[in-house]
Amino acid sequence: MGINFDNTNSFIKDYEYKFMESQVKLAHKMLHDRTGQGNDFTGWLDLSLHFDNEEYKRLLNKADEIRENADYFIVIGIGGSYLGARAVIEALNHSFYNLIEKSKSPKVLFAGNNISGKYLSDLFEVIKDKEVYVNVISKSGTTTEPAIAFRFFKKFMEEKYGKEGAKKRIIATTDKSKGALKELAKINGYETFIIPDDIGGRYSVLTPVGLLPIAVSNINTDEILKGAFDAEKIYSNDNLFENECYMYAASRQILNRKGKDIEILTNYEPSLSFISEWWKQLYGESEGKDGKGIYPASVNFTADLHSMGQWIQDGKRNIFETNLIIKELGKDMTIENEEMDLDKLNYLSGKTISYVNEKAFEGTLQAHVKGNVPNLVIEIEKLDEYNMGSLIYFFEKACAISGYIQGINPFDQPGVEMYKKNMFKLLGKPE
Ligand code: PA5
User: Fold this and answer.
1) Which of 269, 285, 321, 385 is labelled catalytic?
2) pLDDT band at residue 379 under the 50/70/90 scheme
């Protein structure tokens, strides 16, 4: 993968990058020497050095067992305990993976990421007569949304399979020693996978949090890890001008200082929409604090060209775009000639849909740049496991560097406690 900065040239001067050089070096040093704020949550930085291969083997065996025995695999978790897995599963699978009759993997559905009684009731209606495995994921083990969902699933599984049967079909991914979920797993004998102490939720997709659901979905996790571990090396250079990941982080912060405080991640592939959701959580929760931050937004093109396109072209000029462009998708269709040509599309006959999509991107890029919107372009050769691993690491590392340049702790999330405090008070939760 690579990143093209051509369409930021008229917005960022060379000396502005020069000015950033020392700040990036300092941020790199703080991150790698573990002297920056939140340094005890930087285990994701060099995961390859302390990756638990034994646990990973056990995880792959469990994924095989689930693939053989389950019709439905339910992933219970919220925020960092769910978005990464969903993003990768949706990006790399068939667009309609849950609708394929003879699939090599169970259908994957998500729960515990909302507080909707309708959603949960509907979900039980769908799975009640099916073979089900459940993976409940929570680092703290005390998060309300997954805890509520799991209370229902535990009962459902025990009624369906008996206590012993449920025990085999429920897997808990949580802290190695503490939290309510760890306790529940111990008492009920669930198999558990560990979320390392030094990796926070939104940086955890390459731990069992993401790896188990992704492996169950029959996606090659070895290749994802290879992509990420190679990226560790590729993006380890502290020289801003030789490290595209740092150039991305620096560009964001330069633009931010010029009043461009909203970043919109765009894609032209429906299967990438959850990559954007994952990215928004990563950047929103990491950077939006102490009255500072770049607001991370996303659009799915070309659909949103018919809605948000107006705003982007013509609205307040406080935005920049980062485009996620995939060169090779592996599947395509060619538009054919039609005798009547009532839809006036014959000028496209012989052209592929990807070709039309590419021109839509190029045309949009030119229009938005002309409309004073700086555009970065992340180009990915092929939508595959290896590149997905690289992309995940690229975004994680850029986020940490960008956060340090911004002068905040990119690894905590004090702001999310406020709604919980109010909600618990209103619900009458005992102290
Ligand atoms: O990134 C984070 O830390 C959060 O988004 C958490 O992942 C989210 O709140 C879920 O927390 P937990 O895994 O403790 O249930």
Assistant:
1) 285
2) very high
